[in-house]
Design goal:
Length: about 375
């Protein structure tokens, strides 16, 4: 493990998964020499980690905790312990965590245990669905954080309702907005992407799935894949390793996958480029629900609940893993130009692309980094 080498106070930025790299990339750049990136290793796959460091031109992590591929309890326990050790050897002014991952919960716990103030980026999201491990991770991070960076007023209200004091909250917007603005490829590059994937503008669906509720039960995964396969447009499905592992060994699921355009996980520019040119998206991702509000495309959210109510009824519709998927897709496809026109006129509820700047300013002001 390396150690930070600058004289002024440093901030540890703890991350471990694809969405955390995407949403912390600009903040790390803005913090410059003050940022010491610590990778927990929760996502260890190159396609989910290294390519995102490269896309955001981020410095290599100063430490790699290597806690991927284990149970949730083991990931949180091992990351907390390893990070605690690192923090004792490398004094920092604050520890930044993001979102709702095991890495975020572990980062906040370790910082708290080492008496270093935790900062929670993307604070105050609530699905109120206690079946989701992410809900518990984000509650832990919010309540331990000395600084909660809330993306929207909905999130602010959630934090206030849990009696988190006003002086620990700042309203920032969501850092994903500037990530999309910075990395969305220009029109010519998007046209080349369409050609490469053999699809046309607004003539395909882009889909992602990996949540346990959707992929762990072969019946549920089969239902989702059948719904996708029955759509009147080609469906590009970048396969998350978890989904690939669940579908790969089952001949019925593998044959359903064969009716879709299943590809390896895409780099961020490529994913955004395809999303911007798609007819619609179908996904169980959290971040995709936010990104579509910048890209002005509709998404069908296949989940039992969402912690992002800001986009429901405009950019997103929530449906269960069943016939609602095809019904909603066909409703939008039947009137697609009007749907796209309507969304093009709506602002994103997640901010104006300055969330990373506001977050960096709040960290500097409070912790002197
Ligand atoms: N994403 C990507 N390539 C892909 C699939 C997704 O870059 O092939 C991006 C997507 O734009 C979003 C993020 O990865 O920002 C979603 O990651 P994930 O679904 O793992 O996490 P969640 O957003 O649900 O926390």
């Amino acid at each position: 493990m390396g150690s930070p080498s600058t004289a002024h106070p440093q901030v540890a930025v703890v991350l471990g998964t694809r969405p955390e790299i995407i949403k912390l990339g600009n903040l790390v750049r803005l913090l410059g020499d003050s940022a010491a990136v610590v990778h927990t290793g929760q996502h260890f796959d190159t396609n989910l980690s290294r390519v995102f460091f490269e896309a955001f031109r981020l410095p290599d992590p100063v430490a790699h905790l290597g806690v991927g591929g284990d149970t949730r309890a083991a990931q949180i326990g091992r990351a907390t312990s390893a990070l605690g050790e690192w923090l004792r050897a490398n004094p920092v002014a604050a520890v930044v965590v993001q979102g709702d991952t095991n890495s975020a919960a572990a980062g906040a716990l370790a910082a708290n245990a080492c008496e270093v103030p935790p900062v929670h980026v993307e604070a105050g999201l609530r699905s109120f669905d206690r079946r989701m491990p992410e809900e518990h991770n984000r509650v832990v991070a919010d309540h331990l954080a000395e600084l909660c960076c809330a993306p929207t007023t909905v999130n602010l209200t959630n934090l206030r309702a849990e009696a988190i004091p006003e002086e620990r909250i700042v309203l920032t917007g969501n850092t994903v907005v500037e990530a999309v603005i910075d990395l969305l490829p220009p029109a010519e590059e998007r046209a080349a992407l369409l050609t490469h994937h053999g699809v046309t503008a607004s003539g395909f669906v882009l889909s992602t799935f990996h949540r346990p509720e959707n992929v762990d039960d072969p019946e549920v995964l089969g239902t989702i894949l059948s719904e996708l396969a029955a759509l009147p447009l080609p469906v590009i499905l970048p396969l998350h390793p978890r989904t690939a592992a669940r579908a790969g060994g089952d001949p019925r699921l593998a044959s359903l996958l064969g009716r879709l355009v299943a590809v390896d996980p895409l780099g961020y520019r490529e994913f955004l480029g395809l999303a911007a040119e798609s007819a619609l998206l179908i996904s169980d991702s959290g971040g995709v629900q936010e990104e579509v509000s910048v890209l002005k495309r509709p998404v069908i959210v296949v989940r039992r609940s969402t912690e992002r109510p800001e986009v429901i009824g405009t950019f997103a519709e929530l449906v269960g893993a069943g016939p609602g998927i095809g019904e909603q897709a066909r409703a939008w496809l039947g009137d697609l130009a009007a749907v796209h026109d309507r969304l093009a006129g709506l602002p994103s509820p997640y901010g104006d692309g300055t969330a990373s700047e506001k977050t960096a300013a709040a960290i500097r002001e409070r912790f002197g980094a």
